Amino acid sequence: MNEEGIRKRIEVLLEKANLLRYSDSQRTIETLNDALNLCEQIGYTLGEKVAKSYMAHAYYSIGNDEEALDLIYFSLNYFIKEGFCDLLWW
User: 35 CB contacts (<8 Å, ≥6 apart)?
Assistant: First the structure.
């Protein structure tokens, strides 16, 4: 699969995880691990950061606050630097 095909697959996985993260945290984490592996394969930084932020939500939902915080902090600096200001932090 070429880079364009991999990016499309990542987008599908991120969409699936976004829908799952409110109902099935374990499947969300598994889906996002697949997306992360693909992101690392092609050096897709934004995809990696989005996947980790979704994963943070899943870990928070199952009570693993420490892992959730680690994942959010991993992505936060990138989001601020790139100007993603539509994120709500509270």
Answer: 10, 13, 14, 17, 47, 51
